[in-house]
Amino acid sequence: MTINDITVVGAGVMGRGIAYVSSLGGFRVTLVDVSTAQLSAACDHIERLTEQAVDRGKLTEASAANLLDRLNTSTDLQSAVAETDCVIEAVPEKHDLKQDVLETAGRYAPSKAIFASNTSTISPTELASYTGRPAQFAVMHFFNPVHKMRLVEIVKGLETAEDTVQLIKQAAEKMGKETVEVNEFPGFVTSRISALVGNEAFHMLQEGVASAEDIDKAIKLGLNYPMGPLELGDLVGLDTRLNNLRYLHKTLGDKFRPAPLLEAYVKAGRLGRKSGRGVYDYTDQGRGWRT
Ligand SMILES: NC(=O)c1ccc[n+]([C@@H]2O[C@H](COP(=O)([O-])OP(=O)(O)OC[C@H]3O[C@@H](n4cnc5c(N)ncnc54)[C@H](O)[C@@H]3O)[C@@H](O)[C@H]2O)c1
């Protein structure tokens, strides 16, 4: 079996990046979302990334045009998976939503198709069961921004077949990524560490230990992280970060209890870059505005 066609479900922060690197890797891609506005924003984003790649000499005009030609969008999951080789689910980190998408994909995709989820925390064994073909499922955990981050964490469920792992690994490599294989455990390797560090930074902000800018600066310059934990939270989306923490709190215990200030920001609609404001302000007027 060879993967030629990939269906990416969810055209948000991650789905649009996964669609871009998939098309860049030579796959034919269908990007699916319930929102036409999100699909249109995703296409604009992918066109911008493609133009930047041409400007930097990383893509020729012809290969950029081919990349965009390989990309389609749809609001109809059932027909979008009818002839796919691989479904990559990237809908919000909500259990019921993922269940619904994977059940539909499992019902209508061809028998050979493999399934992946970009979940940051949820059990691959559980998600695999919704497809009805658990041997053909693994978590394919990309990082934000997808076109820049080099890793894909492959997380195996109880019944994931070795063939599935190899197919996913090859697909990730065609997308220009390095992979690691991880066994099922809540939060895998990366989300578990990232959630803990990000939550601690929110506790510090709440306690008045330092300003947001100085917490981020201290971690970047003192610990050599490429980004501060608060600016990373804004990039990831504070709602996504909160959902991850709630899940890890439930599965791994009290050290993952979400910081009350993080809960308050999400209640206030301060979700980070995607809503224009999180810990920092990204509107033109905002003092923490960055490009
Ligand atoms: N944001 C990050 O930095 C990051 C990093 C790694 C993994 N993840 C994981 O990736 C997944 C997606 O996160 P995101 O940040 O891209 O979310 P997002 O909110 O930016 O985008 C989710 C998209 O899914 C769409 N959607 C909702 N229900 C749908 C359905 N039934 N069918 C099709 N589309 C639907 C929404 O309209 C939206 O466009 C989550 O599981 C998250 O935990 C996120």
Explained architecture:
By secondary structure, this protein is of the alpha/beta class. The chain folds into two domains: 5-183, NAD(P)-binding Rossmann-like Domain (Rossmann fold); 190-275, N-(1-d-carboxylethyl)-l-norvaline Dehydrogenase, domain 2 (Orthogonal Bundle). Helices cover 48% and strands 13% of the residues. It has twelve helices and eight strands. It has an eight-stranded mixed sheet with strand order 3-2-1-4-5-6-7-8, sandwiched between helices. Helix 6 links the parallel strand 5 and strand 6 (137-141). Helix 2 (36-55) packs antiparallel against helix 3, helix 5 runs parallel beside helix 6 (124-131) and helix 8 crosses helix 10 (229-236). The longest helix is centred in the N-terminal third of the chain and has 20 residues, at 36-55. It is globular. The structure holds nicotinamide-adenine-dinucleotide.
Descriptive tags:
291 residues, alpha/beta, Rossmann fold, N-(1-d-carboxylethyl)-l-norvaline Dehydrogenase, domain 2, 2 domains, 8-stranded mixed sheet, binds nicotinamide-adenine-dinucleotide
Helix content: 40-55%
Shape-level CATH architecture of the largest domain = 3-Layer(aba) Sandwich
Give the CATH topology of the largest domain: Rossmann fold
Spans of at least 5 consecutive residues whose pLDDT stays below 50 are: none
Brief overview:
The chain is α/β, with parallel strands linked by helices. Helices cover 48% and strands 13% of the residues.
Secondary structure blueprint with pairings:
Layout: E1 5-9, H1 13-24, E2 28-32, H2 36-55, H3 61-69, E3 71-74, H4 77-80, E4 86-89, H5 95-108, E5 114-117, H6 124-131, E6 137-141, E7 151-156, H7 162-174, E8 178-183, H8 190-207, H9 212-223, H10 229-236, H11 238-252, H12 260-267
Parallel strand pairs: 1-2, 1-4, 2-3, 4-5, 5-6, 7-8
Antiparallel strand pairs: 6-7
Helix pairs in contact: 1-2, 2-3, 5-6, 8-10, 8-11
Bound molecules: nicotinamide-adenine-dinucleotide.
